[in-house]
C-alpha cells in the first residue's frame, strides 16, 4: 500500500463526513421551512398538577386560554403569558395562583407539518441511520490502514 494513497483516502473520508453533516443540516432546515402556521381554536386540555399537553407540537404562540366555566378567560397575549408557560413541544404549565387543575380550552398557533416536511424528515432519518454505519466503515478502513502499515514494517 502506497502511503500517498493514505492521504487521499483520509481526505475523501473527511470530505464525505463533512458533506453528510452539512447535508443533514440543510435538509433539516428545508423540512422546517415547509411547515405552515395553522390556528387551533378551543382545544380541550385537562390540567393536572398545573400542567397539560396540547395535541400538536411546534407551538408558536397561544392567543386564548379559558376554563370551561368561564372563570378564567385570558384572551390577550399579555394575560396568557402572565398565567401560562408553554414549550414548542406543546407542554403547558400554569401558575397555581391564577387557576386550578381541571378542564380548559386553548387557542393557539402551531407550525403544521406538510407532506414535504414528512418526506424530508423520513429521508433525514434514513440518512442518519447511514451515518451511523458510515462511522463504523471509517473505523474499519482506519484499522485496515494501520494493520497494513504495521505489517509492512515487519517485512
**Number of H/I helices:** 3
Q: Could you tell me the strand content as a percent range? A: 25-35%
Global morphology: elongated
How many E strands? 7
Reading the helices and strands in chain order gives: HEEEEHEEEH
The radius of gyration over CA amounts to: 26 Å
Q: How many structural domains?
A: 2
Helix content: 40-55%
Largest sheet: 4 strands, antiparallel
Low-confidence stretches: none
N-C termini distance: 13 Å
Which descriptors apply to this entry?
2 domains; four-stranded antiparallel beta sheet; elongated; single chain; 155 residues; alpha+beta; 7 strands; three-stranded antiparallel beta sheet
Descriptive report:
α1 (3-33) runs antiparallel to α3. The chain has 2 domains: 3-33 and 115-153; 36-112, no CATH class. By secondary structure, it is an alpha+beta fold. The radius of gyration is 26 Å and the shape is elongated. The strands form 2 sheets. It has a 4-stranded antiparallel beta sheet. A 3-stranded antiparallel beta sheet has the order 2-6-5. It has helices spanning 3-33, 77-83, 115-153, and strands at residues 36-47, 51-53, 59-67, 73-74, 84-86, 91-94, 102-112. The two termini are 13 Å apart. The chain has 3 helices and 7 strands, in the order αββββαβββα.
Amino acid at each position: 500500500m502506497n502511503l500517498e494513497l493514505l492521504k487521499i483516502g483520509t481526505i475523501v473520508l473527511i470530505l464525505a463526513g463533512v458533506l453528510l453533516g452539512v447535508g443533514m443540516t440543510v435538509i433539516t432546515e428545508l423540512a422546517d421551512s415547509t411547515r405552515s402556521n395553522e390556528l387551533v381554536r378551543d382545544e380541550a386540555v385537562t390540567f393536572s398538577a398545573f400542567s397539560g399537553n396540547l395535541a400538536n407540537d411546534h407551538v408558536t404562540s397561544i392567543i386564548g386560554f379559558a376554563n370551561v366555566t368561564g372563570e378564567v378567560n385570558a384572551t390577550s397575549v399579555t394575560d396568557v403569558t402572565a398565567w401560562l408557560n408553554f414549550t414548542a413541544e406543546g407542554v403547558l404549565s400554569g401558575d397555581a395562583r391564577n387557576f386550578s387543575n381541571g378542564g380548559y380550552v386553548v387557542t393557539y398557533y402551531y407550525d403544521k407539518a406538510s407532506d414535504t416536511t414528512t418526506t424530508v424528515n423520513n429521508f433525514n432519518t434514513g440518512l442518519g441511520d447511514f451515518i451511523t454505519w458510515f462511522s463504523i466503515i471509517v473505523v474499519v478502513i482506519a484499522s485496515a490502514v494501520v494493520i497494513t502499515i504495521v505489517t509492512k514494517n515487519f517485512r
